[in-house]
């Protein structure tokens, strides 16, 4: 999974499709990131924060009972154990350090499930920056706990009332707002999407998941490399970071999308939110609204690198339904004592279906990135139980 070059291309995807006023800002972020990433001092500072603040390396936990039930060896990469409860903190600590290095005083972000917003508010507090987080009104209602967490941490949470009032509209609003304050604010994007260099930069900040998991699998598995590497895909950052650690192996890479927002399974090529990739559209090319029980996967597009990995056949993308996801939450909670985020449960749901349906061979070894913990979803689970 290479550097996409100065044009930021992954095959025919990616690029930098933004208003002219944002081109210099994106170029400045790219230049700053290239320099920082080549600077041992920056890497040292980031690695130190990842270990003493975010709690890395996260554990690799065998799902003992579920593995026995399914006839496979299932290993869980526990991003739910990272500070703030999801993988989002890895990327945000990297970008917040970069913003500081660029002399910026404010972070702007968009959020769906609220985990990226909470991570941004957290990093801003840690580094003495201010934070403005855009969030769709619908997501604010179903992720109320995370809205409150952001505000307690000192961030401004701005409701977005346009369109479907979810992540797509929050992203559009955050980008519009960035145009008005590019000189003092840094746009801290939450996934492997947006204009170049974000898809590449976010993947590099998230590859810590895959690199750690690779070393942990080598210690845990006789064959060192798992047969399958599975992760859920919204924009695709936890999957891209995980896949990066196994790109040069024979492991089969599987990305799991929500059936109601499956950009790769159901989408066509579009330009949206600054990049070219797949998105779900109607016959006139209008972007459709996604519909998923998981706010973090309720997004009609996907990051450009995933579109490319799909086209070249290096990764496979599958979908699961909300019902399968809810069943997977209960199954993992009751067999392992781990309550996964609804987003992460998409990956669990596919492994269950594939193992029980015979698609996964008996004794297959599976690495699954559990991108976050389910505490934030308690209100949704309560509503479903009523
Ligand atoms: C726990 C969790 N997992 C996954 C995602 C989806 O994002 P990505 O596909 O970028 O990993 C989110 C987004 O909010 C999330 O909160």
Detailed description of the structure:
Helix content is about 45%, strand content about 20%. With about 375 residues, it is of the alpha/beta class. Helix 4 (about 90-100) runs parallel beside helix 5, helix 5 runs parallel beside helix 7 and helix 9 (about 200-220) crosses helix 10 (about 235-245). It is globular, with a radius of gyration of 19 Å. The N and C termini lie far apart (about 45 Å). The structure holds pyridoxal-5'-phosphate (PLP). Pyridoxal-5'-phosphate binds near residues 113, 234 and 296.
| DSSP strand content | 15-25%
Bound molecules: pyridoxal-5'-phosphate
The number of helical elements comes to 15
N-C termini distance: 45 Å
Briefly characterize the structure.
By secondary structure, the protein is of the alpha/beta class. It has helices at 23-37, 40-52, 64-70, 88-101, 115-127, 137-142, 144-152, 167-180, 198-220, 237-244, 263-266, 304-311, 322-336, 342-356, 378-385, and strands spanning 9-10, 13-14, 60-62, 73-78, 106-111, 130-136, 156-160, 185-187, 228-232, 252-258, 268-272, 275-279, 315-320, 365-370. Bound molecules: pyridoxal-5'-phosphate (PLP).
